Amino acid sequence: MERRYFDNHTHSYFSEDSRMNIDDAVKVAYERGLRGICLTDHLDFDAPPGVTEFTFEVPAQQEAIDSEAEYLGLNGRGGRYGDFQLLKGVEIGLQDISMPKIRKILEDNRFDCVIASLHLIDGHDPYFGEYYIPYDYRHAYGHYLEEFARLIRVMPDFDILGHYDYIARYPDYREATIYYREFRDALDQILTFLAQNGKTMEINTKTYKLFRGRRPELDIEVLRRFRELGGEALSFGSDAHEITRLGDRFDWCRDMALAAGFRYEVYYKDRKPCMIEL
User: Fold this and answer.
1) Residue range 94-120: average pLDDT?
2) Among 37, 10, 12, which residue's Cα sits nearest to residue 26?
3) Would you call 21 helix, strand, or coil by DSSP?
4) 182: exposed, middle or buried (C-beta count within 10 Å: 0-12, 13-18, 19+)?
């Protein structure tokens, strides 16, 4: 079986909202023809009142991944899964108040990959809907993108920008897609920073699932603009919290990437990019 893709964005039982067993994740990902997975568990500090703080014990997560890789003979150890890669990652939730904690976590630990995401904004978790109430979609989406553009400059120690259109998942607006033509200025700030600093943007397939009667779409013009600005590769992430979604729609990701002018998917090992030709 040709192993074509790497799932850069998955969540094990160390994430507050996941129960995915590491052994099961490896087995299913291997059976689906993936080259590997990176467990990028959630670290979202300083949650607003009434919202769960998503944190985990990093040494315990890393020890569990290392032990599993050794036991199964992964990462080039010659086990029954061949060259399958099981890597250590983290998905960091950016907030100004959390920056000292984020920097200490990254200083004290060695990850293969760091995803920078924006899950909490203006004291709200968009999942619950309150963030959107005062705004129309243009302000709600535009403000989120502008804040994201600012925060990645405050904390540039990351590899992949996670789901730039996360904010489109949860509102009641009819407008379910972030189009480049409508949010050009804010998106250009993000994409220019990524391209100029060797960072990667991801196609996150969870965003494009049906949820509460809405299904956001990926605007290919965002990908094309990233390529135009000098982006070299894209990351594919299922954002899986259960094994059924590992590698979800990665053939579609490949088609979108190729149509936007990309030749490579990328994953990170020891914070260094590894290219996979599409």
Assistant:
1) 98
2) 37
3) coil
4) middle
Could you tell me where the beta strands, DSSP code E, fall in the chain? 5-10, 34-43, 85-93, 113-117, 160-161, 200-204, 234-237, 264-269, 272-277
d(CA 117, CA 41): 12
Does 1 have pLDDT greater than 70?
no
The answer to whether the beta carbons of residues 96 and 76 sit under 8 Å apart is: no
Q: How far is residue 98 CA from its own chain's centroid?
A: 19
Q: 238 in the Ramachandran plot: left (φ > 0), alpha (ψ -120 to 50) or beta?
A: alpha
Q: What's the average model confidence in pLDDT over 10-31? A: 97
DSSP state of 112: S
Q: Give me 63's structure tokens.
A: 């020890």
* pTM of the complete model: 0.97
Q: Answer whether 36's CB lies under 8 Å from 7's CB.
A: yes
How confident is the model at residue 278, as a pLDDT? 95
pLDDT confidence of residue 96:
98
Read off φ and ψ for residue 90, nearest 5 degrees: -155, 145
For 209, half-sphere exposure in the C-beta direction (CA atoms, 13 angstrom radius) is 13
Q: Are 98 and 106 in contact (CB under 8 A)?
A: no
Stretch 237-249: mean pLDDT, rounded?
97
Contacts of 183 (CB under 8 A, 6+ apart): 141, 142, 145
Residue 41 sits at φ, ψ, to 5 deg, of -70, 160
Question: Under a CB-based contact definition with an 8 Å cutoff, are residues 238 and 245 in contact?
Answer: yes
The owner of tokens 């039982």 is: 13
Planar angle of CA 144, 150, 154, nearest 5 degrees: 135
Nearest alpha-carbon partner for 233 in 198, 186, 259: 198
Buried b / exposed e along 247-270 (16+ C-beta atoms within 10 A): bbbbeebbebbeebebeebbbbbe
